Amino acid sequence: MRVRGMTLREIRMRLVTPFETSLDRVMERRIILLEADVDGVTGWGECTAGENPFYSPEDTETAWHILENYLWPMVKGKEFASAAEVWGLLEAVRGHTMAKATLETAIWDAEAKQKNAPLWKLLGGVREEIPCGVSIGVKETLDELVAAVKKELAAGYQRIKIKIKPGKDLLPVQRLRQEFPRIKLMVDANSAYRRTDWPLLKELDGFYLMMVEQPLGWDDLYGHVELQKGLQTPICLDECIHTYEQAEAAIALGACKIINIKLGRVGGFHEARRMQDLCARNGVPVWCGGMLESGIGRAHNIAMSTMENFSLPGDVSASKRYWVEDVIEPEVVVTAAGTIRVPGGAGIGFAVRIDRIEAITVRKERLR
Length: 368
Known about the structure:
34% of the residues lie in helices and 22% in strands. By secondary structure, the protein is α/β, with parallel strands linked by helices. The strands form four sheets. The protein has a seven-stranded parallel β-sheet. A four-stranded antiparallel β-sheet has the order 3-2-1-15, with helices on both faces. The protein has a two-stranded antiparallel sheet with strand order 4-13. Helix 9 (244-253) runs parallel beside helix 11 (269-281). The longest helix has 18 residues, at 97-114. It starts with a strand and ends with a strand.
């Protein structure tokens, strides 16, 4: 296999409703799409970096720069047997996992199309239908939050995740438990708390949560080790886990009981597969986190979620929750049972709408 060329595009997509976390409030996404020509077959990848470096050190601008000036030269003219070898070609660049995943996942899509196989089967997936959860941003009022949860439960979602931050944590959880005592409920702090907040976090044990996601600092592995010792509720790590080695350390030290795997955060499918295998060997369940992706990134998340140890409902939800009009067809839909049926077509299994993408492209660079 050889990458003959690639095209970078930045598209702008406006969310149906603003999405607020402890880090930021997002109304419009700046998304980099990568179209890779692999021996005449087109593969698509999406960069999950945010518009700013608040979730991770990467942002839209750094990812474009790294893709154009470093990663493209590293694969240009190189021959490799499969997409699984691409990670090794990019190892000289430290970090920048979201940029790496953009290129790597596009090549996986192309290889699956070359073999006329669904991407999820090429990855070793075992599910033809995946369970879905939903992520709900911080709301202004408790009534607004309750209404949002009712809407998502009516749509069939199997698990509810709410974003929390200081001042909007215990009361929202308490209200939801009063209204919905039996639902699968979890909270995500996106690193909003510090070790001095341990008494508050301990109070979350009283609400029978599935997990508390990333309560402490994005690089505070030791803090999570100490916190998990005092919590009955499982800690799920997200921002702390960028590499296989960090996952290995987190498990060995007892920093968490669950890990959220995001393709962009870990660098693509090669590392995601290694990480889920590591977690499976150690009895740690994993699930797929979301980054407000367009349909292309969402399709890759669906493929990843078919792997065996992705046993908890992820943040892979319907296109219409986020976009008036997506960039794939058919759009991603969720069944009344709260599942997504995995497409059977070659590659990501969805048709990419070039006309729609071109209409919302604000910059474009062809690399040959």
